[in-house]
Specification:
two-stranded antiparallel ribbon, about 70% helix
């Protein structure tokens, strides 16, 4: 069985390789493992659904627990072979992160907006977020894209890498399972208000460390560290989401723009607080700036996770 240093090396090489594959090819158009998990979770929901928190908690335990257990079994099967363990880690990272596809979809909407083709932009926007595109004009769509890039940098990249650093392949798979369940049932629709409660709360818990690391790194890597720190400190707590608040506020401050305000989800209007009120309105060019900031945060996250594991290894060796 590999020691702590070897396990850290496996994670470092595997995570770097997985991110490289994501950078080169993005998400597969067919047969994506996360989509397969979503179909399985949907089937379990059809079997278990009751308008009750307890049944929702069972659904969460079965789906997230099953995915995490599958990751643990796969990791255990190759634990004595470093090359195979690194390859499994790379495959898991590639399967659960989505940074390249996130940037690709954001740029597609940005390109349509730059060309003045609002119909195409409205058609592509649902690939990024669940807002009603028909209710949005060009500037509102640009703001929605920047907010989505910020939030999904945490959800689709940083959070997964953090849990991968903590718990290896089971952490990677488990985090993506929890995040996917939240997207499926964690919203406050009549069907899922009670049934999805457990998935939403577990996602808040699992996403907490990644969201704070994303905010820290966006502050460091952005163009205005003081503005990012100020927006995070003053505005993040006003956001209804405990994890999206720090991330969106720090991105807003780093980019010098205002985020938040009135949103529409499936006909339901939400009036959210403005983040970084001293900033300017979002422009189409800010979409590319947000994507580049997301890329920098991704690279820094890998370095931070590997560095954190090395530090923990050194601390543990001193205690022995």
């Amino acid at each position: 069985m590999p020691g702590r240093s070897a396990a850290t090396g496996v994670f470092a090489y595997g995570a770097a390789a997985g991110l490289a594959v994501d950078l080169l090819v993005g998400d597969p158009r067919r047969g994506h493992p996360v989509a397969a998990f979503g179909r399985a979770a949907g089937a379990v929901e059809r079997l278990l659904w009751h308008d009750h928190r307890g049944w929702g908690a069972l659904h969460t335990a079965v789906c997230a627990g099953g995915a995490t257990a599958a990751g643990a079994l796969a990791a255990r099967a190759v634990r004595d072979r470093r090359a195979a363990s690194a390859a499994l880690t790379a495959a898991a990272v590639w399967a659960v992160v989505g940074g390249t596809t996130l940037g690709r979809e954001a740029r597609a909407v940005g390109g349509a907006l730059a060309a003045g083709d609002l119909d195409v932009a409205r058609e592509r926007l649902p690939h990024l977020c669940g807002r009603d595109p028909q209710s949005l004009d060009g500037p509102a769509m640009a703001r929605a894209v920047v907010e989505s890039v910020a939030e999904n940098t945490s959800d689709a990249v940083v959070g997964a890498l953090v849990w991968g650093a903590v718990a290896g392949v089971p952490g990677l798979v488990g985090f993506r399972a929890v995040n996917t369940l939240d997207a499926m049932v964690g919203h406050k629709s009549p069907r899922h208000r009670r049934f999805g409660w457990a998935s939403a709360r577990l996602d808040d818990l699992a996403g907490w460390p990644g969201a704070r690391l994303t905010a820290v790194l966006a502050t460091v890597a952005g163009g205005d560290p003081r503005g990012a720190a100020r927006a995070w400190r003053t505005d993040a707590g006003r956001h209804p989401s405990p994890n999206a608040g720090p991330v969106e506020a720090s991105f807003a401050g780093a980019l010098g723009v205002r985020l938040g305000g009135t949103l529409s989800y499936g006909g339901r209007v939400e009036h959210r607080p403005v983040l970084n009120g001293a900033g300017r309105d979002v422009e189409v060019a800010d979409i590319e700036r947000a994507v580049r900031l997301s890329r920098r945060v991704t690279g820094l996250t890998l370095a931070a996770c590997v560095g954190g594991r090395l530090i923990m290894d050194a601390i543990k060796r001193r205690r022995i």
